[in-house]
Amino acid sequence: TKIQKQTQKGWTKVSCPCCVSDRVDPLVLVRLGQKVRPETKRWIIKLIGSPQKDGGAALLAHPGEDASGDIIVVSAPRCTLLRATEELGLCKTYSSGEMEAFSYDDKDNFKDSEFVTLAERQYIVKYELEGVRAQKDLRVPGLSDDYTLQHRDNIWQKLRAAGVIVDMFPLHNQDQLKDLSEAWYCGNQLAQPLDSVNSYFGSSIGFYFSFLDFYTWSLLPPAVLGLAIAYFSVSFWSHMSMSIDQDASGSAVGGHMIQAVFSMFWSTVFMELWKRRSSSLSYRWGNLRLAERFAEPRPGFYGNLGVNPVTGRVEPLFPEWKRELRMALVSVPVVGLFLGLVVLGMLVFYWGEAQVQQLHQHWDSFHTQVLLYAPSVLHIIYTNILATVYKNVAQALTEYENHREESSFQNHVTAKVLVFTFFNYFAVLFHIAFYKQDVPLLRKRLASLLIITQLVNQVTEVVVPFLVDRFISASNRKENENDPEEDKYRNQSTLPAFPGLFSEYIELLVQFGYLSLFSCVYPLTAVLLLINNLTEIRSDAYKMCKLFRKPFSPPVANMGVWQVAFEVLSFVSVVSNCWLLLLSPRIQRLCTEGELNSTNILLLAVLVEHILILLKVVLAVLIPDEPDWIRKKREHMEFKSMQALRTQVTHSPESTEERLMHLNWSVRVEGGRLGLQVRVRVEG
Amino acid sequence: TKIQKQTQKGWTKVSCPCCVSDRVDPLVLVRLGQKVRPETKRWIIKLIGSPQKDGGAALLAHPGEDASGDIIVVSAPRCTLLRATEELGLCKTYSSGEMEAFSYDDKDNFKDSEFVTLAERQYIVKYELEGVRAQKDLRVPGLSDDYTLQHRDNIWQKLRAAGVIVDMFPLHNQDQLKDLSEAWYCGNQLAQPLDSVNSYFGSSIGFYFSFLDFYTWSLLPPAVLGLAIAYFSVSFWSHMSMSIDQDASGSAVGGHMIQAVFSMFWSTVFMELWKRRSSSLSYRWGNLRLAERFAEPRPGFYGNLGVNPVTGRVEPLFPEWKRELRMALVSVPVVGLFLGLVVLGMLVFYWGEAQVQQLHQHWDSFHTQVLLYAPSVLHIIYTNILATVYKNVAQALTEYENHREESSFQNHVTAKVLVFTFFNYFAVLFHIAFYKQDVPLLRKRLASLLIITQLVNQVTEVVVPFLVDRFISASNRKENENDPEEDKYRNQSTLPAFPGLFSEYIELLVQFGYLSLFSCVYPLTAVLLLINNLTEIRSDAYKMCKLFRKPFSPPVANMGVWQVAFEVLSFVSVVSNCWLLLLSPRIQRLCTEGELNSTNILLLAVLVEHILILLKVVLAVLIPDEPDWIRKKREHMEFKSMQALRTQVTHSPESTEERLMHLNWSVRVEGGRLGLQVRVRVEG
Question: An example Gene Ontology cellular component term from the record (chains A, B) (predicted)?
Fold first, then answer.
């Protein structure tokens, strides 16, 4: 197509012969600062182009329209892609039809060479660019001397810091995008094209949509149950016409219990089944044996140089205990402090409301009328400020903890923010449920929360996008006449950056919380959530494809910390449900009427709770986390690598070592007898 | 020494030249049935001696004094040992000083060839003998035709069934034994020679003694605390002289709480630290990467022949789901039934006691006097019968579950018996604590139980052994004049077989139970246990060395199911402790005097319990299960095997294959570029 033709000329030369191909498709766009000198741009392009042994990124660079323009288009030659695929530990389909950890030396035995997905290719480009380190002290042409690079400095970071590189994002592939969007949200098909989502957007996003899908479908049973209960409670009411309140309580109890116990087991089974699905997905997507901890540490990672005992490479090292110490003595207290602030805010809010009420009762005037809203408004403002501050604090804290792997860094950030946000959402509900012990209020609150979130979601995720799209697509159309590619790229760079999956996940988590923690007081929860998620899937898909830049997404093997969060929640749900059952109006009435001794009731509840938790644990242990066939495949891989290790003579005498230096690592780890034979060849 | 000289002649020939050595030390004794024909014995010896490719065991056999004698002494040539060492996945010290999974091809790079410990060698002999399968249908000379072997029959099992082989046990090595016992229990040293215990008796026994050691030392803190509390409560009492009962309650509370909370955290920290110790032991003993699941299935394992998807070997296969089904539908219900019977027995016992009491009160006579003891006597008999029946049932059930690995078989048997025994021990205490809610009675019961177990242990484990030893050692002395080796062996075979570690472990578990579950009602528990264990270590060691035959012990990586049992217990302890605190006299009095609302107290207790459990979980998660340096070593191994796998071309074109045949496998596993170079060399 036109894209290729245009971009053919002007690309830097590939270093190795095997990578020469007639088409180079642009993968990543790098935007430079406005007043970056041409020589600097040339230098960067050269850096990107030159092979890794010369300290380059071994990628392909294109200066865009003219040498002075502020963009660089980056692509990757085949060899670099394959080597990185091996380094990241991705699995690919072997000639035998199984997934095998990809090996560069063995590349011909893997099915078709185009298997590196777009998302992976773009991530690899990012990985290579951010991995480039200065091999000696050098100064960047066209930059002032205070930006000279020391040995082993991370060049990309320095350039960002110097404002030379202002932006970097992967480019959409319009053809693939079109196909994807048609298969995803245009039609009214039920199933999502998860595999192509994974290959286009990457596994982290693939996992999110798979989970959303799985979660939505597993909402069916509770939804049906909820409907049934709601129906019966209503009919029950119509028969013996009491006052609504009494009825609500009277009938609710039956439903209550069923709902509570059901939702407790449902949540466990749901999570266990998801784990199985997740592991089979990660096998299918080749992320089962990611080798992140064996790869280079993340750019931000610091420490004094040393030999990594695991890989034997020279890289910055940072002792584990130091990290743990920092977590224990810094992170934990700070997070605790913020949680405290949330509680404080809530208490002040309640206190304020009480004050205002009194005031209003004393002199009932318009002013006091207005004043009634003051506390809630202030509280909302307070909470939002707190949240934004906390986000940055969490980021800083995790930077300070200095994690080696990107994934663990992400997990720790997420975990911190997660705890806070969750607390923020649920503090009020817990306060009502456990402290005020006011079930009707809880029911009202929950219903309103659910409906509000519904509306808010629909608006923010469907209506707004639609409106935005109106005029963005318009501008797209305007541009689609054959004007240079570069403008198209510029257009993409005008789109807002993808905010990440946090907000999406937290939304699901909060939903799940409403459902598993409190649903028994409001049977229709599941139904509302089901409806919401059905639209959610589409709107999220639409957002991903149209409204944001394409995000980088690293290959991941599972949902990471989110999985844990959901599991924890499903255990907390047992406690809250038992408690709510205890508070259920009928039992309360029995107690007040003295038919039952409240202490014994309480004891019973505690007993039931313990048994249920025990059952949940047993259930969780009994349902294996991965399907049998995955286990077999994994063990097969382990067996093979064990065999490989055995049939290999690892340590070889020094002399050989030195002689073999110029042969690649895969030979160096070989040796002994073999080393000798090779030496013969090298000498002769 | 004499042993070698005598046993030199008469051994079967070694098949491979490299194994010829001037000394063969006897490892295992096989006892044949009385009326086994000489030809049968010859056939068996031939079987043991012939190499594996001819369906033999590739071991060395010695017919004992004369060909018609009823014993066969078995030893193993070096090659068989090394191959088995590799197959079992044992790690050994590499020339680099690190532990590496042993590889036969690379054997020269491992430190001294004598590293296969005695226990391992003896286990390997057992492993090889029990692994021998008939390669074609054949009939054993001197046996009736109904014992003909089908293809792939397990020969050893058949011979046992036919009564040809009545017994098989490893032989003591008197010299090593002497050194060991001197270092172990003769002197009054504190530390045990755990490494030599492991190398002489094997890792499973090594782990038991390590755990006993670790456990005993970690009893110090609670013991000190207990003493302090006891002391203060007494002094407290002497000051304000109340009636003992009131005091016990009054003062107990303070100690109570401290003790309870302390023991809860102590148990967690103890278990976590043990896990770390255990993992470093298993690294040190080379059992970190046991490859049992990749080895042949256990002899008892049945299923229809198929290709194992993991190893690609042809062997009996049995679907996982079938096993799970059998567990769920057969094992679980049966176990439940027996637990039910225990409870039933207890209830009947209480009922009976009540009846007898009444009877005695009505007509107080000598007969009724005697009758008073009837219930307890009957109950004891009942329990014992139940226990013995259950043991066999558990064995049968696990056989029926048909586990592939020996270890998982053992774990499942242990787990079943464990649950039952534990229930048996604690049902009464729990009944008193939770149902009768009678703390003083609980205290009395606990004290008496502790002291009784003390006495019973001391008697059974020190006095009896001593007496037995008196005359056994006497007979030994009588025999020690230079009469043939064979009689020495016969003497060993007269010793009782080692009953296994179950009773030892369960004793520790029950102790641990008393301590963590109920200690807060009887502060001196820890002290008593500490004293008991200090003698326990010695008496157990003595037992192992002198009073039983040397047991076979397979290499294991940890305590298996026992670890789980201890952990579970430490969680249950939270519940019981909180409950006991709730029952503590002072609080009870407060409630009765109406100073406190019992419901609120209860709520508080529940809250505290949940928080404590949460803290325990957090603690258990935070303390990593293996020390940092072990983690690094493990990851290093993983990394190396990953590398090995990558640098290996599994499917290389035939021609190359053939050309490279004469080069060793370690070249074949290399490939790609390198493969080419080597080929060039071969051609030129």
Answer: plasma membrane
